[in-house]
Specification:
2 helices, about 75% helix
Length: about 130
Amino acid sequence: MRGRDFLNPHGQILSVYFLYPRYTCAKSVPRTSMTTMAVKEQELALTTDTFSALEQRVVRTIDLLRAEREQRATVEKQLAQAKEELELHGMEVADLRRELAELNKERDAVRQRVERLLENLDAIAAS
């Protein structure tokens, strides 16, 4: 152990500097060289440029989001209209199928009548 070192409760060596830290005045201004100040100004400029770029990206993202929402609303309206049209066409198809079934029944009835008339004509011709 050196002359100015002490041990903490865990047996580790503490330096005098840890026991008696230097206190600085809050009003003291750190001395920096001109090159350090220039580097800080460049960092500030880079930070400002980076912030501006980030701001532009956020604005573009918001614009894209707004456009996508508008497109989605348009597509949802078109989808609703298409569903309505599909429902109407489905109803029309059901009506047409019923009409077709009725026409087929009517055709079969007419066919049977015509066959009976032909049978009657054959019977008259044979007699």
